[in-house]
Amino acid sequence: MSQTVFAPWENPTEKPLIQFKNVTKRFGDFTAIDDLTQDIFAREFFALLGPSGCGKTTMMRMLAGFEAPTQGQIFIAGQDMAKIPPNKRAVNMMFQSYALFPHLSVWENIAFGLKREGKDKDTIAARVEEMLRLTRLSKFAKRKPHQISGGQRQRVALARSLAKAPKLLLLDEPLGALDKKLRQDTQFELMDIQEKTGTTFVIVTHDQEEAMTVASRVAVMDEGQIIQVATPAQIYEAPNSVYVADFIGDVNIISGRAKPNGEKVATQWAEGQPDIIGTTATKFDAGQEIHFAIRPEKVAISTEEPQDAANRVRGRVLDIAYLGNISTYHVELPTGHVIKAQTANTRRLSRRQITWEDPVWLSWTDTAGVLLER
Amino acid sequence: MKRFSWFNATSLTLGFAFLYVPMIILVIYSFNASKLVTVWAGFSTQWYGELIRNEEFLNAAWVTIKVAVMSSTIATVLGTMAAYVLVRAGRFSGRTLFSGMIYAPLVMPEVITGLSLLLLFIGIGLDRGVLTIVLAHTTFSMCYVSVVVSSRLVSFDKSLEEAALDLGCSPFEAFRLVTLPIIAPAVISGWLLAFTLSLDDLVIASFTTGPSATTLPIKIFSAVRLGVSPEINALSTIMIAIVTVGVITASLITKQAAVRQARDERMAERPA
Ligand SMILES: Nc1ncnc2c1ncn2[C@@H]1O[C@H](COP(=O)(O)OP(=O)(O)O)[C@@H](O)[C@H]1O
Ligand SMILES: [Mg+2]
Q: Which residues of A touch B180 (CB under 8 A)?
């Protein structure tokens, strides 16, 4: 790639657009957000990912001004937001329920925020037309929300929240209601719009694929805390915990005791089995609990014993999941562990050589997996 | 199919007869040609004609309409505000007490409401007349408005208001531009209800009125003491008609709007 990589979070002189500083939010005695500190930079496409109820919507609502932090501060563009009501923030939100005004047409819905700014008629009309074109809704301008389809409604909600050209756009599970094909199209549309408008996007999703597709950075949350923030590739390749590794994509986890050996760490994981050799930058003490995580596509499967692999184990095919382009083999080891191995289906199905109950070899290099403390 | 039984038929007939026979007799006799209320002498609309020429009745009708329009309008504004606060403000201290106090006049004996208002007006030295009746009617009809409007607000999607705030509305603008248009049918039927309540009120009006303002119910009541005349029957028939139309319209608006809005709101949200 010739262009400079977009990574303001690595530049210590860059001023963040959003700062959460030790933010805690309690509802009664339930803690929804737990002492959270996080910077988000201008022009980022920041994804919040986590299971239902982990506090994603609450974070968005605090940014939009509908909830106030119980403790801590939120800054947007250097300004403390504590006393700023929602209507005075350069922030717009696309609601999880869309919240379109049922008594107004598509055109009037999109124009709503612009009219509040007191812009003149022509400016408003021009901006609404622009938004209608951008979201391909021009034909539906006169319709009421109940006269258009779910996908179109979702685009109206997007157009309405974009119309005021906010500094920050909050998207709460914007695509959850769409079917897969439309969702993928819209994801690319969103990225395109973000590029064109230069708006900072914070998107909530519980779909990890979606987060990986659109985001510049992904924050994986659990119970009101951010567990890891990193680029999609880093999150996938170098998760910092079993929780993150397990949440993003498919993974095999083998737990054992660490046996450090210079650059490498061996994991003792079962009696009578060779240690798993891996490399890591983290320091492990001898005998410390350790979790070896490896993605299924990094595990090779073969009928003959591989000669030069750093790690290899024998097993028996328990199940095969055929997914068209790839197949996932579930292989049971003599220890009872089940390891998933994935291969691309470059041959036709009928000529595949491994089948149920076959004894097979699994192998991987010493850099294929990650070693995790927790 | 429901089974038909003599018991069902009889109780239904008795019940409805109990409710409507007096009124039906009144309506029929308003078209009586005879001056004698109890003797039928053929069909005629002459008493309606007499009514139009009767200054006193016309004055009373005018006062009644003025009072009804003013009191129902004020009651609608106050009742809607009260309903909004009760439904939206969440849990503030004294909320239960406040909502209880809003609804208490619904079950308060009218005589007591009337008497207490009379004492108040005397106490503050307010001359009794149209103004005092308007105030009194506002007092008791605003609880009805508030009941109607708050039952609509309970099912109102709060995120619509948040979206309005998010797009730059002040809380009042959000109410005026989003909430009010959507709950308008409930507000209108609340107004109609307050209007009809004011139209046919006798007890509170007679407590709070003065010599300058006589409403139709008061007029009818005092006229009847001198003997029932066919004119009174005609007048009562007109009032029955107005009240019936008002109440039916209010309930139709509420029902229709509820159906349509449930659909609109469902459709305006994301598909499930
Ligand atoms: N207004 C509220 N009152 C009480 N509890 C709330 C409120 N809003 C959210 N919560 C709780 O806070 C937690 C986080 O909610 P939310 O942020 O909506 O999660 P999600 O990550 O699914 O969007 C949930 O357990 C939810 O029940
Ligand atoms: Mg949510």
A: none
